[in-house]
Write a structure and sequence with these properties.
Layout lengths: L3 H4 L7 H11 L10 H4 L4 E5 L11 H18 L4 E10 L11 H5 L4 E7 L11 E10 L6 H8 L7 E4 L5 E5 L2 E5 L3 H10 L12
Antiparallel strand pairs: 1-7, 2-4, 2-5, 3-4, 6-7
Length: 206
Amino acid sequence: MLQEDDVRQDGPIDPHLATETWNSRWPECRPIAHELKIAYTNRWIRFHSLPQSKRYPDTEPEYAVVLHRHNTVLDELDVRGSLLVITADWTDVAGVSFDPRQTRARLAADGVHWQTILEDPDDDPEYPAYTQLYISTRPWKTGIADDILRAVADDELGGVILAPSDLRWLYHPYDGGADVILPTPAERDTLKERHQTWLSTHPSGL
């Protein structure tokens, strides 16, 4: 398993170890953020990031609410050390390119390339779409990922997954809220009960 001390020992993350741990923890799903809620419906919960399910913040007080809700849940999930930050780019070729002007490159410049995933193998092979995943770590404290979370809230960054070093839970912020995948349905239900007012009123929970 990927332990905190294994993630970074004065050196880069081991992508192979990260893949091994992902496959052990989450065998039903690729590390594609928007697929998580489908693969693990019975352990999934969605929180909205603003009252009345408003999607985008317009003022600094609203940004403060968005960040407060994200950090409250992350604190309760208990990172216990290093926070893994998984970010994504999308390309039409399998190769990796680096553009320092991209939001992902700017906010997660230390990210190690982790995986190249063909989005849909059934797509026209002349027009493939690839997800390029990168992984980095940050020593956890409340607010350590606020730059990432704010960019997500502004729809400047997508496909983000935050997790502890052992990947025991997954947190996918999106522009409008966050999907959380817990180890068990019981843990999901406990978190859901704790933040009833942040839930969608839609029967599906979306």
